[in-house]
Design brief:
CATH superfamily of the largest domain: Bira Bifunctional Protein, Domain 2
Strand content: 15-25%
Largest sheet: 8 strands, mixed
Helix content: 25-40%
Shape: elongated
CATH topology of the largest domain: BirA Bifunctional Protein, domain 2
CATH class of the largest domain: Alpha Beta
Keywords: Aminoacyl-tRNA synthetase, ATP-binding, Cytoplasm, Ligase, Nucleotide-binding, Protein biosynthesis
Family: Belongs to the class-II aminoacyl-tRNA synthetase family.
Subunit structure: Homodimer.
Bound molecules: adenosine monophosphate
EC number: 6.1.1.21
Radius of gyration: 28 Å
GO molecular function: ATP binding; catalytic activity, acting on a protein; histidine-tRNA ligase activity; transferase activity
Strand order of the largest sheet: 1-5-6-11-10-9-7-8
Number of helices: 15
Number of strands: 16
C-alpha cells in the first residue's frame, strides 16, 4: 500500500524548513524585544481541560477535537489551541507566586482541529501565541496588541487592520446574554439545532454560527458594546485612548466576538487585505480572559493574549527561496584511500566548527563539483591518490577559483586565513 500523510496535514520538506526557521527566528526576536519568554507544554492534555477552558458549546470543542482514550481509559485530546495548556501549566507550577507579577509567555507549535481541509485550513497547523498573565490593565491589553501589530509589520504584510471590541466584565456579559436571548427568542424555531442549544447554554455563540450566519436577525442582533458596565466601558475607553496616543490605527468592530468562550473585556483581530492572503483574511486574534485562571483552579488572575496561524504568516513571508549560508567545505575524495582520509578530515573540520559535507556516492570529479555548487560551498577540497601519498589536499576556492595544495596539518589555519582576507564571509 502507498502511504499518504493524513488528510489535512502537510510535510514541511527540507527545502521549506529554512523559511519556517526564518519565521520562527523573527518571532523569537520580537518576543525578546518585548521580554516575553517561551513556554513549552504537552501536545496532548486531559480532554476536560479544553471542555472547561475553551468551552463545550464552541465549535472547536464540540466538533473539532482529536480525542482518544489512552490505555488506562483516560480521555486525552490533541491540543486545538495553546492558551488552555499555558494557563494549566501556569496554575500547576504556581507561576502566579513568582516575584514578577506580570508573566509574559509565548508558545509556538502544532495544533489540531478536525476541520474540513481547504485553502488555509489544515487539521494539523501551527500557532504562535502570547499570553500576559497577572495584571488587569488596559496598558497590558495594548502591549499585547502592539506586539501582534509588530509581528505583521515585521513580515511586511500590507493593508492590515486592527479590529477591536469589548465583551465586558461578568456584569456586562450577563446583561448582554439576556439581550441576545430576548432578541432571538421570537425566531428560535428558525435557528439550527445547535443554536437552540446555544440559546440556553451560551447565546453569544449563536453569533458565530456558520449555518445561521445569513439569518436576518443576525444583522440586527444587539451589540456587546451597548451593554458594557461602567467599569468595563472605562477599561475599553482607555484601550482606545492608548491606541490613539500611539497612533495605531484600529477599527471598533461591534460584531467581533471571537470563537472561544474564555474571552472577556477586550477582544481583537488582525485582518489583512494583502493580496498574498486574500481580502479580509484573519491572520490572528486574541483578547482578555480574566476568568480563565480561576476556572482552571488558580487564584483570580487576569490574562490577555493572542494567537497567529503560522501557515498564514508563512504565506505573508512570501515564497522567495531562503538563501542559506552555504557550506564552508565540500570534500571530494577520489578512491577508497582518499575516502578514509576524507572521513578523518571532515570529522576534524566539524570539530573545529566548520560546516562541511563530503561525497558518499563514489562519483567522479564532475558529479562532485555539481554537489559543491548546489551546496554553495566556499571551498572544494579535492583528495586524489597523489594527495593521499603526499599528505596534502587540494583546496579550490569557489569564489576566486584559485587552487592550492595544503599540507594536512595546515588545513584549519589555511581556511581561517583565507576567511580573514575575505570580507564577504563573516
Ligand atoms: P483561533 O485560535 O481560532 O482564534 O485561531 C487563531 C488563528 O489560527 C487564526 O486566525 C488562523 O490564522 C489560525 N488557524 C485556526 N485554525 C486553523 C486551521 N485549521 N488551519 C490553519 N490555521 C488555522
Amino acid at each position: 500500500m502507498a502511504y499518504k500523510a493524513p488528510r489535512g496535514t502537510v510535510d514541511i520538506l527540507p527545502a521549506q524548513s529554512g523559511k519556517w526557521q526564518e519565521l520562527e527566528q523573527l518571532l523569537r526576536t520580537i518576543c525578546a524585544n518585548y521580554n516575553v519568554k517561551e513556554m513549552r507544554t504537552p501536545i496532548f492534555e486531559h480532554t476536560e481541560l479544553f471542555n472547561r477552558a475553551v468551552g463545550d458549546t464552541t465549535d472547536v470543542v464540540s466538533k473539532e477535537m482529536y480525542t482518544f482514550e489512552d490505555k488506562k481509559g483516560r480521555s486525552m485530546t490533541l491540543r486545538p489551541e495553546g492558551t488552555a495548556g499555558i494557563v494549566r501549566a501556569y496554575v500547576e507550577n504556581k507561576l502566579y507566586g513568582l516575584p514578577e507579577k506580570l508573566q509574559k509567555i509565548y508558545y509556538m507549535g502544532p495544533m489540531f482541529r478536525y476541520e474540513r481541509p481547504q485553502n488555509g485550513r489544515q487539521r494539523q497547523f501551527h500557532q504562535f501565541g502570547v499570553e500576559m498573565l497577572g495584571v488587569e490593565s488596559p496598558y497590558v491589553d495594548v502591549e499585547c496588541m502592539l506586539m501582534a501589530v509588530t509581528v505583521v509589520e515585521a513580515l511586511g504584510l500590507k493593508n492590515i487592520q486592527l479590529h477591536i471590541n469589548s465583551l465586558g466584565d461578568q456584569e456586562s456579559r450577563d446583561a448582554y446574554r439576556e439581550a441576545l436571548q430576548n432578541h432571538f427568542q421570537p425566531v428560535l424555531n428558525e435557528l439550527c439545532h445547535d443554536c437552540q442549544v446555544r440559546y440556553e447554554k451560551n447565546p453569544l455563540r449563536i453569533l458565530d454560527c456558520k449555518v445561521d450566519k445569513d439569518h436576518p436577525m443576525m444583522k440586527t442582533a444587539p451589540q456587546t458594546i451597548d451593554y458594557l458596565s461602567e467599569s468595563a466601558r472605562a477599561h475599553f475607553d482607555k484601550v482606545c485612548a492608548l491606541l490613539d496616543d500611539l497612533e495605531i490605527d484600529y477599527v471598533v468592530d461591534p460584531n467581533l466576538v471571537r470563537g472561544l468562550d474564555y474571552y472577556s473585556h477586550t477582544v481583537f483581530e488582525i485582518i489583512s487585505d494583502d493580496p498574498k492572503l486574500g481580502a479580509g483574511s484573519t491572520v490572528g486574534g486574541g483578547g482578555r480572559y480574566n476568568g480563565l485562571v480561576e476556572e482552571l483552579g488558580g487564584p483570580q488572575t487576569p490574562g490577555v493574549g493572542f494567537a497567529f496561524g503560522m501557515e498564514r504568516l508563512m504565506i505573508a513571508l512570501g515564497d522567495e527561496p531562503q538563501e542559506d549560508e552555504g557550506l564552508d567545505v565540500y570534500i571530494m575524495p577520489l578512491g577508497s584511500e582518499a575516502k578514509d582520509l576524507a572521513m578523518q578530515i571532515i570529522t576534524m573540520l566539524r570539530a573545529n566548527g566548520f560546516t562541511c559535507d563530503m561525497d558518499q556516492c563514489d562519483r567522479g570529479l564532475k558529479g562532485q563539483f555539481k554537489s559543491a555548487d548546489r551546496y554553495r560551498a566556499h571551498f572544494s577540497m579535492i583528495i586524489g591518490e597523489e594527495e593521499v601519498k603526499k599528505e596534502v589536499v587540494n583546496m579550490k576556492c569557489n569564489h576566486s577559483k584559485e587552487q592550492v595544495e595544503v599540507p594536512l596539518e595546515n588545513i584549519v589555519e589555511f581556511i581561517e586565513n583565507h576567511y580573514e582576507g575575505d570580507h564577504d564571509h563573516e
